Amino acid sequence: MKYNNASQIWTALDGKRQAFLTRMERCAAMTIPTLLLPTGHNHESSDVTHDYQSIGAQASNHIVNKLMLSLFAPSRPFAKLQTGAKTKKQLAAANITEIDLDDILAAGEREAVKQLDSLAQRPKLYMLLKHLVIVGNGLLILGKDKLRVMGLRTWCVKRNVNGDVQDLVIRERILFDELEDDITSLPELQRYTGETEVDHFKWIKRVKGGNYTMTQWINESRLPSRFDGRWTEEALPYRVITWNLADEANYGTGLVEDYRGDLEALSTLSESVVDGAVLGTEYRWGVNPTGMTSIEDIQNSVNGDALPASKEDINIINSGTGDGVKTADAIATKYEQRISRGFLLASAVIRDAERVTQEEVRLTANELETAYGGVYSTLASSLQLPVARWLFKSIDLNLGSSDIKVTILTGLDALSRSGDLENFRLAMADMANMAALPENMQARMKWAPITAYIGQGRGVDLKPFFMSDGEFAEAQAQATQQRVGEATATAAGENLTANQGPQ
Length: 503
Known about the structure:
Largest sheet: 6 strands, antiparallel
Shape: flat
Number of strands: 13
């Protein structure tokens, strides 16, 4: 269908996703409601309705923090720069070693990570990951010097059969005077006043060749061509990120959607426990109306008073919900454990025992993290790679026309902040095992290729940590020269003492 303006395509796309939005609203309500509030909610006058359980919010925040440290660890670069064959030939011609270039590129990698902190953009990425985990979708806008994250209600998307974005429509409902001066000064928009609420649309469309174009609209009026944009797929600043995108789907689903059944059950059970506990604490005194005990005496008495009463006339009345509350609470605990395992909460990962080894904790955690290896790989290409290119560009390292490629560090090694150190320890342990071999075997071994082979197997470059044959020979010569010098000095001192004789 052909649409004449951005308002028409917005109406069409937004109308098709209402059932999906309702489902995502429920996912947000069970975890963090403010990420996707119901339609018409007023932040200033309406209260946010929270669920009867808080494990959803706790689990979501926990895995988002874990993801943030894994994908954008402040202690190490999450992207690596690698040179191609063309650049290597140019370096060889200029007598620049590959090691020198690696040092320069490593400095650029560290500078890019520092730039993320200096621009104070980590909170934006943290918010994006919240959207991904809970509602499964988020829009990341790579601006000139800052990032922007937009929630699901402010944009619509249509994909092609390959899952690529075909149409992306962004709608911001704002006051006219909040627009840029270049827009408010346009003659065709002078009918609007400063307090008029208008819809500002940005329509990003995929064209032949894989490039993208953007047109901007105020209500049904298109802005002049100078406000348009055109980018290649790699340079597109508008990135629709999903947690898990199914085939032939326009929108993704989040981790909360996968555990929505458990969260729904836990919410129902938590409500039952609260209601049952309240009923269980309420009680009334039943008094025999034909007995000698007076109801007024009981109501008007205080603790310790003596009353004319008969024990048989009085009995306590309560709901008797104690057993039901215990049953509901026990079942709710099982659901909490299942949700905690799915969201990698450490309290559920480690077994409940007096003695739990550190190795058991590590192996169990790695086993759970492996379940989301596919998600990490997806985020590497859809999130980390665009952010890495944006950071390198912000430090004036433009890789558009160069032979230097950006590689994202993924996998279980990249998930742990101590992964590199662990690999180094394992490689050194392998080298120690080789050193324990018989001397006649070691004498026939070529240590340089063995070191390289072990390092490659463990994913660690051991070359900087071991001296080359020339460096080792030079160090041995210096050590020998030093020992000779010390021996000479000692002998000279002994001769001097002998020549002087006793005083």
